[in-house]
Amino acid sequence: MRGHNDPSRDDDDPIEAPHRVLHRAIETSGLERTHIFPGEFMANTREWTASIRTESVVRAPFGDWTSAMVHEADIAAVAMAALLDEGHAGRTDVPTGPEPVRRRDAVRMIGEAIGREVRFIELTPDEAREHWKDRYPEQVIEWFLEMGRHLDGNAWVSPAVEEVTGRPGRTFARWAADHADDFR
Q1: SS3 call for 147
Q2: For residue range 62-98, what is the model confidence (pLDDT) as tens digits?
Q3: Which residues are CB-neighbours of 74 under 8 A, at least 6 positions away?
Q4: Cα–Cα distance measured from residue 54 to residue 133, given in angstroms and rounded to the nearest whole number
Q5: Cα separation of 117 and 74, whole Å?
Q6: Phi, psi at residue 153, to the nearest 5°?
Q7: How many C-beta atoms surround the C-beta of residue 156 within 10 A?
Q8: So what's the pLDDT on residue 3?
Q9: Cβ contact 157:100 at 8 Å
Q10: 34 touches 88 (CB < 8 A)
């Protein structure tokens, strides 16, 4: 867990690794900076749009994997505060959603938002590799699969959204309702 004044971290995240050089350059530049490293975006579930629209089904691995996904409007609110309000220089904020959500529950909430049942079909790791092979590089797929083996993967809830904005973050149920037309 990073604190408010910690620099960017080193880890095995292949999506973030290319950005590390830029983070370090910013941190050592002597300029005022604020890092904002959001958790998993709720909007990532839009990858399910086509199968929900056509079949009312989501195929994905690790149905019990949890993540405190963050609403894009909350990321924007934290960024806006960092740009406009005093006291953010040198901070590192990690906005997340206000609650961890299991994958299969996210699918259920989307179904509730669009007014019909949406089934979750859990893929095996080999089925997931096949499903993602044209979308992600192999290294990213393997990292996703490794991360998914830890069912509480992204379940940590950060206080950043509420601390910075003065209000709790938006829930996944709210996000699903806000974006229901995307899935109809």
Answers
A1: helix
A2: 999 999 999 999 999 999 998 888 887 778 889 999 9
A3: 95, 97, 161, 165, 169, 170
A4: 21
A5: 28
A6: -30, -65
A7: 14
A8: 40
A9: yes
A10: yes
